[in-house]
């Protein structure tokens, strides 16, 4: 099996757990946040900067790489790790989320999805088989089954049909995968319907994947509902496999996800808001462009160990952002990713030291959303 | 005196010379190329990346910093070195070149130049006194006299009046400067008129500056004429002072400038063309976006020691450029600056080893403009 989950410690009062994931490109501690490198690059920063901040695994997007530069080219380069010079873990999504998001530009059948490229309008096709083959060419350590992320809201009938198809597609992905060095994760769907979540978990677990993602959350539903469905779903998943909550990356959601037993997260949130000039801190967001920081010569966060905070002031970073200088985006991106990776490390430490519930309460009390 | 030029070796067959410039922020070897960091940042890259590639001194622009974030703010930050976290040499220009370039937006009197900010249209004023005080606030190791760069073409009468005013202004700059840790360079003007160049050199040398720049070249004149005026001018400058050719940075111009005895150069060329996707090599330009490099898994230059060439392929960099990824601009910028800094180091070595003329011939024979 390409990846192996090692359980290190369970929280005695919540579902939180600390572990380790063994992959063909190294072992990383969980719970972990995966920075998003959509187009084979985490926007604005280098793989060495990612290593310096302690990133163990990143996510890259199949949809984008399939269209540009093409998975055949990446394969010819020796795979995604070699192409982008990143020797640690990589997870690729299946492209399903992106093609379903294309709305009028795509047509779904049992076979797969025909769609128009957002780049040049060309006709393209992705299916469980194609998405898996593309991901085999890319060569990530963890690849994802081709699924439909059930939109919110979705009635029971739609959600059931979609979820059943996602399971059939997951089986076809599994049957397509031939590489022994790649782990295919199944994705639990079911919308906000608990019986369908149970059905989805049961059917996927029967197919025996090396890991499971919880999909279809953080898609517009109220947070309370999200946490309810998450808790309901996660506790049915096997304990000996890694659990991945897709597309979630705000600190409050991360702490709740960890509490319910999630091991892996990804989200464009930290890198996207960084480029908009918003820094993440333990107390909430800091809008670095604000006039109040013009002559503030302290770092973004005096307690932060990141390259930006160790070397540059709020005043300098604000100047860079106000003058549209790329280095400003870099520093903000480095800070936000470091913050989140550090946040995950501290949560893990709290789990191991048996005070995760206190850590969570204290964090939520100080954090302004 | 804030800076001291040390002559290490003179070429016996040309005007080329190898030296060292001692500044309050370190000693650097000459001839040297100064990367341009217009807004207190060399576009897209970090001060640590500049150090890694061996940059000893950078240039920053007074006009831009005067308007944003303001020289008073930079002073409050502890000066430009501290503001941008760069502990090696800095040279600031006077802002003269930029305000004169504003055309209809500026008005010149003997006192100085009134102009409209290109950012918000606000009315601003720069003069020899103001430009010097601004540069004192910025705190660069080398600061430049406020001058008019005589445009090309300019008749003898215009060039004479302008050059005489530049000399009067240079005196006022000198009288304004009170910081002992800053060296003020005079700027030789005179257009393409040899008698005016002689006059300018004579009058400035009489004021006894710690270094001299040759201005008003590479402003649209034919290259042969530029080299002719350059040679004519440089050989009149004192040997014990550093000589700086402003705004020149293509490899063929650099080798000719060095041959005529120039020690310092600056230009936005390497960084600007990098961001347009053009890499500089010993054989000429390489347009990295070209389709022929799509599956070219070699580095930009196999013999290059830069971070980009040591870690990434043409195919990857092309992918980044085609998808508008910032990391592509960074890698191109790093490569081009490394190339030019390395080019200068190799020229210096050739001077010391007494084969500069051979180096020059060989370079020009292989280099496609």
Label this structure with key terms.
homodimer; alpha/beta; three-stranded antiparallel β-sheet; 369 residues
Structure in words:
The structure is a homodimer of 369-residue chains. Chain A has helices spanning 47-52, 62-67, 71-76, 80-84, 96-101, 128-138, 156-176, 194-207, 223-234, 251-259, 269-275, 307-311, 314-322, 326-352, 356-366, and strands at 4-10, 17-23, 26-30, 32-34, 57-60, 89-92, 106-108, 113-116, 123-126, 142-144, 183-188, 212-214, 243-245, 264-266, 278-281, 284-287. Chain A starts with a strand and ends with a helix. The relative contact order of chain A is 0.14. Chain A is of the alpha/beta class and 369 residues long. In chain A, a hairpin with a 6-residue loop joins strand 8 and strand 9. In chain A, helix 7 runs parallel beside helix 8 and helix 13 (314-322) crosses helix 14 (326-352).
Please give the structural blueprint:
The structure is a homodimer of 369-residue chains.
Chain A: E1 4-10, E2 17-23, E3 26-30, E4 32-34, H1 47-52, E5 57-60, H2 62-67, H3 71-76, H4 80-84, E6 89-92, H5 96-101, E7 106-108, E8 113-116, E9 123-126, H6 128-138, E10 142-144, H7 156-176, E11 183-188, H8 194-207, E12 212-214, H9 223-234, E13 243-245, H10 251-259, E14 264-266, H11 269-275, E15 278-281, E16 284-287, H12 307-311, H13 314-322, H14 326-352, H15 356-366
Parallel strand pairs in A: 4-14, 5-6, 6-10, 10-11, 11-12, 12-13, 13-14
Antiparallel strand pairs in A: 1-2, 2-3, 7-8, 8-9, 15-16
Helix pairs in contact in A: 6-7, 7-8, 10-14, 10-15, 11-14, 13-14, 14-15
């Amino acid at each position: 099996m390409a990846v192996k989950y090692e359980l290190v410690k369970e929280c005695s009062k919540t579902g939180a757990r600390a572990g380790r994931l063994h992959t063909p490109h190294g072992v990383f501690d969980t719970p972990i946040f995966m920075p998003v490198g959509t187009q084979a690059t985490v926007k604005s920063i280098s793989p060495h900067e990612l290593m310096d901040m302690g990133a163990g695994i990143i996510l890259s997007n199949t949809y984008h790489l399939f269209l540009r530069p093409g998975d055949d080219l990446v394969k010819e380069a020796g795979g995604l790790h070699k192409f982008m010079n990143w020797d640690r873990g990589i997870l690729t999504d299946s492209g399903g989320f992106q093609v379903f998001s294309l709305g009028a530009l795509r047509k779904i059948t049992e076979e797969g999805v025909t769609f128009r490229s957002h780049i040049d309008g060309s006709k393209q096709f992705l299916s469980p088989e194609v998405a898996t083959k593309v991901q085999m060419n890319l060569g990530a350590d963890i690849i994802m089954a081709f699924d439909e992320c059930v939109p919110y809201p979705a009635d029971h009938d739609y959600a059931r049909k979609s979820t059943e198809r996602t399971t059939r597609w997951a089986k076809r992905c599994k049957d397509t995968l031939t590489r022994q060095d790649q782990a295919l994760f199944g994705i639990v769907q079911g919308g906000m319907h608990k019986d369908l979540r149970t059905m989805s978990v049961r059917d996927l677990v029967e197919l025996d994947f090396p890991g499971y993602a919880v999909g279809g959350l953080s898609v517009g539903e109220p947070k309370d509902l999200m946490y309810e469905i998450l808790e309901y779903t996660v506790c049915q998943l096997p304990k000996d496999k890694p659990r991945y909550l897709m597309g979630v990356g705000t600190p409050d959601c991360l702490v709740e996800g960890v509490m319910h037993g999630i091991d892996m997260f990804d989200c464009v949130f930290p890198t996207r808001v960084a480029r908009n000039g918003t820094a993440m801190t333990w107390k909430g967001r800091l809008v670095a462009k604000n006039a109040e920081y013009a002559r503030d010569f302290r770092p973004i966060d005096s307690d932060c160990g990141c390259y930006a905070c160790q070397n540059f002031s709020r005043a300098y970073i604000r100047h860079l952002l106000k003058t549209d200088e790329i280095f400003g985006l870099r520093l903000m991106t480095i800070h936000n990713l470091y913050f989140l990776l550090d946040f995950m490390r501290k949560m893990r430490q709290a789990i191991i030291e048996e005070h995760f519930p206190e850590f969570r309460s204290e964090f939520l009390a100080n954090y302004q959303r």
